[in-house]
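Good morning,

Attaching, inline, the backbone tokens for the sequence recovery test we're adding to the shared suite. The designed sequence is right after.
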């Protein structure tokens, strides 16, 4: 491998963070075109990338494009170089991350922003390192400790924790033998009222304690309780030589003081952890209960930082500067985002309440429905991460099968359980709710997802560019899928018979105008001849053609025309930083989590459909609106967050692909699967949508293609998409409920 002392050899170009961002370099000044590497650079990259090999470029200073052409390009003429395809080079830390990045740009694969492997500690930013550090580092003066976050700590936790320590101190003074612990609690009461700018140190044990029979000399640490490592050996004479007085004080503390304070700190720890941004307070409480309160009182010293002269041999146990850190939304536990970790207990609560309290004695049906719907969000996150982990550690065939099988499992689970419940009850409203949810997912992924990404990304980047060719492939498939899905509906409008439930003559003239209500096209005239002989065969034909078109799209974008996406991965590292891939979830672990999450998803979907009936019957809001908004977009929230993260990193191509791929999967996979399900389990679901669904979907697709035509966008175009989506929501909100509900 080349070293820095070898001037005749080239270094690989690398980055510290390996973000999922195309490396695009722009010149300064208005109107200047985007500057990429030279044409010969591109041709050389294309040549070296044969058979999917990972290639590297010449090492240059950060932020500058490679200006000198590699030697290999001197063999080719300028005409050949001008015909080269522009390649977007992404940098990966290891082979697993390279596979994950490559999968992000593959059609039909789930786009995933988070890392599936553990990132080297030295490659993390200082902000991230601070999130995972213990509260035992003394820093220089960072300004005043009177901040909004610290005041919030005082109002939420500080005052009553301090009061509790005062009460425990009084109890320990009353016992007499626990007076040393009483003095410690009195000092801790002042500390926890305002712990910022103060330090808790563990001092060396006094000589009087070290001289007690040689007991402390035999221990790895001088703690008489549970605060340090286990002693190497224990002598029976240690307990006798410690003295009755100290033994009685320790027993009084462990029986009267410590349990109450440990419980209080446990509650603070849980509450602060759930609030995420107050995780430093959770660390403060956990470390206090596990270390400080288990040390002998004479070893705990509390001082202000400006008065502290820290000895070299003194151990700093706690040193906190601020209670709130806004960057804790990046915090992860074993690769799992902290929000997904905090929402996991919600799944358990939902399942216990849903199946134990079947008679709604503890909670009502609307509450259970809300809990079940919220539980779908973390489960969707776990399913997405499991799919990304398996795909990144497997070959293309396994990754494609996993993505095709479990990519839409969240939505399909809810739709199928709703159709089964509607079939058992003979209620057509559930089928209409499923159609509304399908339409809401399609419209939301076409308008809301790219619109939000454009707006939020446009705040940081004045203009964002994306691969218009790849977006055009998805748009063409979307046009095809929308046309195929709504073909039976258009057929029924042309050949069906209009039937109205109630008509009134408003002119008192037999030949005058009539006002009719609850009108629909009847496909069951003459014993359903039109439906069974014409509409149903058309539905089955469309349901076969749409998955076939999806497979053709996969073959086109992944095999024959993969160069459209212009992606190639470089897996090099900075000199001196070579690390093997340490995956968060192995393939077997990811598979187990995927299956368990799918099982829990099925249970939550069953509970949601079980308790949605009171909402549909008693709510004054249109069932159309409930299906299009709540049931459609809540399961897609993890995807929306992923899209926003990509947009913030100036990678709008992936943000757009997230919405397009979900919309294509709705039409080309989810709807055909539902039609196939109705063959084996007859339900009220037919592929005939209301006029409102047809017009909203077609208008959304046309508008999206118009916006994406030039391959660049800004926050204004994103605002247009979001506003159109809000207008459609208003239409659904004021629309009357569908017939049968």
């Amino acid at each position: 491998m080349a070293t820095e002392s070898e001037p005749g050899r080239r270094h690989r170009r690398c980055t510290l963070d390996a973000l999922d961002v195309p490396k695009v370099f722009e010149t300064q000044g208005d109107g200047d075109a985007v500057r990429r590497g030279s044409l010969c650079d591109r041709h050389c990259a294309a040549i070296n990338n044969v058979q999917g090999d990972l290639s590297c470029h010449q090492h240059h200073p950060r932020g500058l494009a490679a200006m000198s052409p590699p030697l290999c390009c001197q063999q080719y003429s300028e005409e050949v170089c001008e015909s080269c395809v522009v390649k977007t080079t992404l940098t990966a830390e290891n082979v697993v991350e390279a596979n994950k990045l490559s999968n992000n740009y593959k059609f039909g694969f789930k786009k995933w922003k988070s890392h599936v492997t553990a990132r080297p500690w030295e490659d993390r930013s200082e902000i991230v390192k601070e999130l995972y550090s213990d509260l035992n580092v003394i820093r220089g003066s960072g300004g005043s400790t009177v901040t909004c976050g610290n005041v919030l700590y005082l109002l939420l936790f500080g005052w009553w924790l301090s009061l509790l320590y005062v009460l425990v101190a009084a109890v320990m003074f009353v016992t007499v033998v626990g007076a040393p612990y009483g003095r410690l609690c009195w000092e801790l009461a002042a500390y926890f009222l305002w712990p910022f700018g103060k330090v808790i140190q563990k001092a060396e044990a006094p000589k009087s304690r070290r001289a007690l029979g040689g007991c402390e000399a035999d221990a790895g640490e001088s703690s008489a309780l549970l605060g340090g490592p286990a002693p190497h050996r224990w002598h029976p004479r240690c307990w006798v030589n410690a003295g009755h007085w100290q033994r009685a004080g320790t027993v009084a503390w462990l029986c009267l003081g410590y349990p109450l304070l440990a419980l209080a700190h446990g509650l603070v720890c849980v509450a602060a952890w759930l609030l995420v941004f107050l995780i430093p307070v959770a660390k403060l409480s956990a470390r206090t209960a596990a270390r400080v309160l288990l040390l002998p009182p004479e070893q705990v010293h509390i001082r202000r930082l400006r008065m502290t002269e820290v000895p070299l041999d003194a151990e700093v146990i706690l040193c906190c500067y601020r209670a709130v850190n806004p960057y804790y939304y990046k915090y992860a536990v074993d690769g799992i985002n902290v929000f997904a970790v905090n929402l996991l207990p919600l799944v358990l609560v939902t399942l216990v309440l849903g199946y134990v309290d079947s008679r709604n004695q503890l909670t009502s049906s609307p509450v259970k429905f809300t809990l079940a719907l919220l539980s779908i969000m973390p489960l969707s996150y776990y399913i997405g991460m499991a799919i990304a982990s398996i795909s990144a550690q497997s070959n293309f065939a396994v990754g494609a099968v996993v993505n095709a099988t479990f990519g839409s499992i969240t939505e399909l689970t809810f739709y199928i359980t709703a159709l089964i419940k509607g079939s058992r009850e003979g209620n057509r409203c559930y089928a209409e709710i499923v159609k509304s949810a399908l339409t809401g997912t399609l419209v939301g992924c076409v308008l809301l997802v790219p619109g939000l990404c454009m707006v939020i990304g446009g705040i940081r980047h004045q203009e964002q560019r994306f691969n218009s060719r790849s977006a055009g492939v998805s748009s063409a498939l979307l046009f095809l899928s929308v046309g195929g899905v709504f073909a039976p509906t258009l057929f029924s409008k042309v050949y069906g018979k209009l039937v109205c439930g109630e008509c009134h003559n408003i002119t008192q003239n037999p030949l005058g105008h009539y006002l009719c209500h609850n009108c629909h096209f009847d496909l069951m005239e003459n014993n359903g001849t039109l439906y069974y002989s014409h509409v149903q065969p058309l539905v089955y034909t469309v349901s076969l053609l749409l998955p076939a078109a999806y497979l053709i799209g996969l073959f086109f974008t992944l095999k024959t025309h993969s160069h459209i996406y212009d992606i190639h991965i470089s897996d090099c590292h900075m000199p001196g930083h070579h690390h093997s891939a340490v995956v968060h979830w192995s393939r077997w672990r990811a598979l187990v989590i995927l299956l368990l999450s799918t099982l829990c998803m099925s249970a939550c979907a069953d509970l949601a459909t079980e308790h949605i009936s009171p909402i549909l019957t008693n709510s004054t809001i249109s069932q159309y609106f409930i299906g299009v908004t709540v049931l459609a977009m809540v399961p897609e929230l993890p995807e929306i967050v992923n899209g926003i993260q990509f947009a913030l990193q100036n990678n709008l191509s992936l943000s757009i692909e997230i919405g397009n791929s979900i919309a294509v999967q709705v039409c080309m996979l989810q709807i055909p699967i539902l039609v196939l399900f109705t063959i084996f389990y007859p339900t009220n679901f037919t592929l005939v949508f209301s006029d409102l669904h047809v017009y909203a979907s077609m208008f959304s697709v046309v508008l999206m293609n118009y916006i994406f035509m030039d391959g660049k966008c800004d926050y204004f175009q994103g605002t247009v998409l979001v506003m159109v989506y809000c207008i459609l929501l208003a239409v659904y909100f004021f629309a009357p409920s569908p017939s049968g509900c």
